[in-house]
Recover the amino acids of this structure.
């Protein structure tokens, strides 16, 4: 009987600051945590024993959300030994769970659709090799581990090659045999200071024991803020409308989910969008396409939110605009706070991730904000900016550079009082 393993112990540095207090695998896509898509696929494949490898900081959040079962599967939580870093280190922590059985392994930040996951299992059973890996065709192969195929066999795999020979990226979805597990046990620390699954894959392909299947359906590793927004757009399009909350004197168009306990009044809701339990929308709010409002979010007072993810407890209640952005938990937007999401030259928007500048490829991209950020009245955030958690943005501030966590941004101005001519 095949078992399932989801690797969810990563620190999610490229999606900071929004992941300062929430694991990337628990960020919402189409109204559901990323992790839930992998659990669904494993359930549909008939896997009844699933281990989720977590870290000490995200264990409670994930376990409290999913509990001990998901569908027909029993869930086991394994805390990774944090003295070792990397994907192979996470998998090492789960090896006792396998006990020599075949296992389907999916990275916690990956969305791979069920037909491809099922095809990979069938493919593995058919060729009887040591391991099988899903491969995704990508436009930027220098960012990934890239594989070469000879027929169905993987004959080479290189991590982030300077001159990639193919565009077939490691999709971080594997079917492992006991032989694959033996290679994981042998992995040593890489030049990057991590234990990497790629090392085991390389050994298997050298022995002719690794096979690759090219994905035909949607795949996304949710590695960037714009990747999260893109995935959310796609899965919002698949929403089935469901209105269980209170709706009064409002216009609703398109496919909209309003959970029980949410309130919408005197507002315009343009689907697809998702409004969670406890959220309050109104009066005169405009919620535009692809927006996710988390639990207990409040939007009102002629505020517009477009194609954005607002996490639990955030408030934007007075004359604000939030577009193409990801906003962390418990933030507060002062009256007339504006998020700019378009350059004057209409060029693509760049963002710094882990100290490196990346081109998002998007012409509209707002900001990424960590938890507990307070924006003063009339503040303005320029496109592609990040604001670290627990920061305070003073009234009238223009955020044209990234703001580190725990920072107070102060506007200094010179004011002169001139007496009026009494004559």
């Amino acid at each position: 009987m095949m078992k399932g393993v989801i690797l969810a112990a990563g620190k999610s540095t490229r999606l900071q600051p929004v992941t300062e207090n929430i694991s990337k695998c628990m960020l919402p896509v189409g109204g559901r945590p990323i992790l839930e898509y992998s659990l669904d696929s494993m359930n549909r494949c008939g896997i009844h024993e699933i281990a989720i490898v977590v870290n000490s900081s995200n264990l409670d959040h994930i376990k409290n959300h999913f509990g001990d079962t998901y569908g027909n599967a029993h869930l086991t939580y394994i805390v990774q030994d944090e003295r070792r870093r990397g994907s192979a280190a996470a998998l090492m922590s789960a090896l006792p769970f396998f006990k020599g059985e075949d296992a389907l392994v999916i990275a916690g930040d990956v969305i791979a659709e069920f037909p491809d996951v099922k095809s990979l299992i069938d493919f593995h059973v058919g060729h009887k090799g040591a391991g099988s890996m899903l491969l995704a065709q990508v436009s930027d192969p220098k960012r990934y581990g890239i594989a070469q195929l000879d027929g169905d066999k993987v004959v080479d795999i290189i991590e982030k090659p300077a001159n990639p020979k193919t565009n077939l990226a490691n999709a971080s979805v594997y079917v492992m045999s006991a032989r694959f597990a033996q290679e994981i046990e042998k992995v040593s620390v890489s030049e990057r200071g991590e234990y990497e699954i790629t090392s085991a894959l390389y050994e298997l392909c050298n022995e002719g024991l690794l096979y690759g299947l090219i994905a035909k359906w949607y795949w996304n590793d949710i590695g960037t803020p714009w990747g999260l927004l893109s995935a959310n757009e796609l899965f919002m399009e698949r929403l089935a409308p469901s209105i269980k909350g209170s709706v009064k004197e409002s216009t609703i168009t398109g496919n909209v989910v309003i959970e029980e306990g949410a309130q919408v009044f005197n507002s315009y809701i343009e689907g697809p969008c998702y409004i969670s339990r406890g959220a309050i929308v109104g009066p005169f709010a405009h919620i535009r396409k692809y927006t996710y409002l988390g639990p207990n979010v409040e939007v009102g007072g002629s505020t517009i939110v477009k194609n954005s993810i607002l996490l639990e407890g955030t408030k934007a209640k007075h004359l604000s605009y939030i577009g193409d952005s990801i906003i962390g938990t418990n933030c507060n937007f002062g009256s007339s706070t504006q998020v700019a999401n378009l350059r004057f030259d209409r060029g693509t928007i760049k963002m710094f991730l882990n100290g490196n500048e990346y081109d998002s490829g998007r012409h509209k991209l707002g900001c990424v904000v960590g938890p507990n950020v307070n924006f003063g009245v009339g503040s303005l955030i320029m496109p592609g900016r990040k604001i670290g958690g627990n920061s305070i943005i003073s009234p009238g501030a223009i955020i044209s550079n990234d703001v580190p966590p725990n920072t107070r941004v102060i506007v200094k101005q010179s004011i002169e009082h001139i007496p009026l001519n009494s004559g």
Q: What stands out?
A: Residues 3-223 form a domain with the Spore Coat Polysaccharide Biosynthesis Protein SpsA; Chain A fold (CATH 3.90.550.10). The CA atoms of residues 123 and 213 lie 8 Å apart. The first strand starts at residue 3 and ends at 7.
